[in-house]
Specification:
The complex is a heterotrimer of chains A (259), B (253) and C (338). Chain A has 259 residues and is mainly α. Helix content of chain A is 80%, strand content 0%. Chain C is an alpha/beta fold and 338 residues long. Chain C folds into 2 domains: 36-121 and 223-337, D-Maltodextrin-Binding Protein, domain 2 (3-Layer(aba) Sandwich), CATH 3.40.190.10; 123-219, D-Maltodextrin-Binding Protein, domain 2 (3-Layer(aba) Sandwich). In chain C, the strands form 2 sheets. Chain C has a 6-stranded mixed beta sheet with strand order 2-1-3-10-4-11. Chain C has a 5-stranded mixed beta sheet with strand order 7-6-8-5-9, with helices on both faces. The longest helix of chain C has 20 residues, at 239-258. Chain C is globular, with a radius of gyration of 22 Å. The relative contact order of chain C is 0.17. The chains are: A mainly alpha (259), B alpha/beta (253), C alpha/beta (338).
Chain lengths: 259, 253, 338
């Protein structure tokens, strides 16, 4: 029964994707100007070519390198600051105005300073991704800590967990984890979007975003579209993998809560 | 011996209003005594319990447990909260071992001890379950085991069975009495139910509403195991209800 | 089983597609009666002063009015790449552009031809002041900024590096960007060298952040640089207009060659640099203004071959794909007759 439902759902999903592809191909053939809308078949053959000569692999690894750098830093900075702000009222009051002033600035606006501070290298790209990812992580960590149920903190105190450090690490942190996981997930989404922008200014000859601009400069719109789809697919894979890991390893104690 | 001496507590609301929550509370509890607090909502009985637990400080007065004044939370007092208070990220067993971890008891030893208490509350099968997999009554049984594993002298319970259905509640009361008779802790139990108080307690303390004062103390010297439907129990319930009834009226006025 | 709703949705989508298909080629319609507005694309380089001179002196409108042109409009592009994108999108009719950006665009479906030459050579490799230079090998490991992939500068630089046994992908980093960004990157130390068309090298030298080490004529003698590109639609529908565009271009180019100081002034006014810089740039550069497209033919075909090898174009482009020499040749034949 359950399995039957699943198969049916899967069939519907595949049918929907197949329909979209067929329509895309038909539209592309009707328009028949390859730089206006490259056809599905041309994108597939471009994709196969890129996989075969290993170019795509190198691009993906380059972009992931920036991404890991940016997200890693965002986690290292966002969680501790979010924790401090969520737990200590005075720190919240002191830091919050600064955060609220910087937060609305679009990450891409940091590109000029990223270049000046870090140079044209992966750290500049990582920094732009960091700026995109850090605030969702910070804010969600903050919310998670702030919403730690009082009864859990008091239970802990009664059970001998009285030092601030112990309460934070053993009670507030695990209690905030679902919220932190949401923050990381949102942060990774925003961070990945910054990858394309971070690569415009050309810190390397490789990278998915870089290749979008490279082929755009050469008007190879089939390549541009191929890299765009790769960008989307990787975002999807990262998101699904993270959700899976979180549910299986990290937050299996949660009942039916979708991060 | 638990001594409550001249406890006063005032709350300050954000608008600057002052609410006198507890006024001149004096009470002496013998070891291994089962005492119920009963009174209208907002009479300060929970506040008193929290002061005994060390979660709040009184404005004046002292609590003395076995000649030691209470300054904050400590392992000599266990507490079961009204709300479900298990750590949702820990399994049942790990919830119970929490206080032992804090005391740095070695892992195998603390798990053995925890399993004994899990056995005591009849939930051995659920050692590796997470709290969300348990019913409300089971959660409170785990919370009791978690409070007991620390071997406290006093067990403080704030309406622990308030959120479970009547049938489960009766069963939990029986189980609690069984545990109390076995372990002979001093037990301080807040309830709204006259029936519960008469069934469980050695003494019942009735509180007045705002300011919270001790109005009357009833000694329940019914033989154990008690019969809920006995004539004596009925008489006690009537007396308690009328004492309380006057209080309820006052709150409404 | 396909549900009825689904069929309905698909029908709507296909309907929309067919509708858009029917309305797709509107381009020529407005061009049938008279001509209207003629749209030019150009870049802020001394290479393309011919356009600016004809514009400043009002020659475009003066010469083209009788062919139905009621006004002209121009768009300034930082590099040839966006300029070609604009032509692909049907936004410009005539482009002053490097010889290579049209290659990938034509390869990908742009219908346009080179009808006249504009200039040869004229770009310099400028190295940060502090860095030593004796031979091309000194460039290994450096970051060089130049125009984006497929532009003339990118192509000439890569070929020169390869001629000197330097792998442009592995031995150093070439970063594609516009001229202003490249100048900033050099000044802030984010790149070690830039390869840019004039007047950028002169500006950088005057600011003291770099020095010219190689001129593009040394890299590739008489390499084609800028050309005049017009759309096939214009050639097909208004050949006499195209012929006049070439004539006016020749007129302006000859005027510039005879009056370089005035050309510098026109450039300075158009782009917003000082007259001194413009004048010095025109004196220092190794470029030459030309008009004959056949001067640029051979190197352009070599570029096509290089770009094909680099995978920038899907096919090897030929003279017929890229050039229409007929207008220039016709004008020259008439001049000889006279």
């Amino acid at each position: 029964m359950d399995r039957g439902q699943g198969t049916k759902k899967r069939t519907l999903e595949l049918a929907s994707i197949a329909t979209a592809i067929v329509i895309w191909e038909i539209v592309a053939r009707i328009i028949d100007i390859k730089y206006i809308l490259p056809s599905f078949t041309s994108v597939v053959s471009a994709f196969i070519g890129l996989v075969q000569d290993g170019e795509l692999y190198r691009d993906i690894m380059t972009s992931l390198n920036y991404f890991v750098l940016g997200i890693g830093l965002a986690i290292l900075v966002g969680i501790p600051i979010g924790t401090m702000m969520g737990w200590f009222k005075s720190i919240d009051r002191a830091v919050d105005p600064i955060i609220e002033m910087i937060r609305p600035i679009p990450p891409l606006a940091w590109i000029p300073f990223a270049i000046l501070w870090f140079g044209l290298n992966k750290y500049a790209a990582g920094f732009v991704i960091f700026v995109g990812a850090v605030f969702p992580i910070l804010i969600n960590t903050y919310t998670g800590f702030k919403n730690t149920p009082k009864v859990l903190v008091e239970s802990g105190k009664v059970l001998g967990c009285v030092k601030n450090k112990d309460i934070i690490l053993r009670i507030a942190l695990p209690s905030a984890l679902p919220s932190i996981a949401t923050g990381i997930r949102v942060g990774m989404g925003v961070g990945w979007m910054c990858v394309v922008a971070a690569e415009i200014f050309g810190v390397s000859t490789y990278g998915i975003g870089r290749k979008i601009w490279f082929w755009n400069d050469l008007h190879h719109m089939d390549m541009v579209l191929t890299y765009m789809l790769v960008l989307g697919m990787i975002a999807l894979i990262i998101d699904r993998a993270f959700r899976y890991l979180v549910q299986v390893w990290w937050l299996k104690w949660q009942s039916g809560v979708v991060v | 011996m638990l001594l409550i001496n001249d406890i006063n507590k005032t709350y300050h609301s954000e608008e600057g209003d002052e609410v006198l929550a507890l006024s001149d509370i004096n009470l002496e509890m013998k070891d291994k005594e089962f005492v119920c607090f009963i009174g209208p909502s907002g009479c300060g009985k929970t506040t008193l319990l929290r002061i005994i637990a060390g979660l709040e400080k009184p404005d004046s007065g002292t609590i003395i447990l076995h000649d030691e004044p209470i300054k904050g939370p400590g392992p000599d007092r266990g507490m079961v909260f009204q709300e479900y208070s298990l750590f949702p990220w820990r399994t049942v067993l790990k919830n119970i071992t929490f206080s032992l971890e804090m005391k740095k008891v070695p892992k195998s030893q603390r798990e053995d001890t925890a399993r004994q208490y899990l056995e005591l509350v009849g939930l051995s099968k659920f050692a590796d379950s997470y709290p969300h997999e348990l019913s409300g009554g089971m959660k409170q049984r785990v919370a009791i085991a978690r409070a007991l594993v620390n071997d406290p002298k006093v067990l403080l319970m704030d309406e622990p069975f308030g959120a479970v259905d009547a049938q489960t509640r009766n069963r939990l009361q029986q189980e609690l009495l069984k545990i109390w008779e076995r372990d002979k802790k001093t037990l301080l139990f807040i309830t709204h139910s006259v029936d519960e108080a008469v069934y469980l307690a050695d003494r019942v303390v009735v509180f007045t509403s705002r300011p919270g004062r001790i109005k009357e103390i009833f000694k329940i010297d019914l033989p154990r195991p008690r019969d809920r439907t006995s004539v004596d129990a009925n008489v006690l319930r009537e007396r308690l209800l009328s004492s309380l009834g006057a209080e309820m009226k006052n709150t409404i006025d | 089983m396909i549900k009825p709703q689904k069929i309905f949705i698909i029908a709507i989508v296909i309907g929309l597609v067919l509708l858009s298909g029917c309305t797709a080629p509107p381009e020529e319609e407005e061009e049938t009666t008279g001509f209207g507005e003629l749209r030019f694309g150009y870049q802020p380089s001394t290479h393309q002063i011919a356009y600016m001179t004809a514009d400043a002196k009002g020659w475009w409108l003066e010469d083209l009015e009788s062919y139905g042109v009621t006004s002209t409009k121009d768009f300034l592009f930082p590099t040839g790449s966006p300029e070609m994108k604009a032509m692909l999108a049907g936004e410009i009719d005539v482009a002053y552009v490097g010889a290579t950006p049209p290659l990938s665009a034509i390869d990908q479906g742009l219908d346009a031809k080179i009808v006249a030459g504009a200039q040869v050579q004229g770009s310099d490799l400028v190295l940060a002041t502090a860095l030593p230079y004796e031979s091309p090998q000194d460039l290994k490991g450096l970051k060089i900024a130049t125009f984006p992939p497929g532009t003339l500068q990118d192509t000439v630089l890569r070929k020169w590096l390869m001629d000197n046994d330097i792998d442009p992908k592995e031995d150093l980093t070439i970063l594609g960007m516009g001229g202003a960004d490249a100048k900033t990157a050099l000044a802030s130390g984010n790149v070690d060298a830039v390869f840019l068309p004039h007047p950028s090298p002169t500006i950088i030298e005057s600011e003291g952040t770099g020095r010219v080490i190689v001129q593009s004529g040394e890299m590739w003698e008489d390499h084609a640089c800028c050309v005049v590109l017009v759309t096939d639609a214009l050639i097909r529908d208004h050949p006499e207009l195209v012929e006049q565009i070439v004539r006016t271009h020749i007129r302006a180019t000859e005027y510039n060659i005879e009056h370089p100081e005035e050309a510098a002034q026109i450039f300075a006014d158009d782009i917003g640099v000082s007259y001194e810089i413009a004048n010095k740039s025109i004196h220092d550069w190794d470029g030459t203004w030309v008009t004959d497209p056949s001067i640029e033919l051979n190197t352009t075909l070599e570029y096509a071959s290089v770009q094909y090898d680099l995978g920038y174009t899907d096919k090897l482009l030929t003279q017929d794909d890229l050039f229409d020499l007929s207008f220039y040749n016709k004008i020259m034949a008439e001049m000889v007759e006279e």
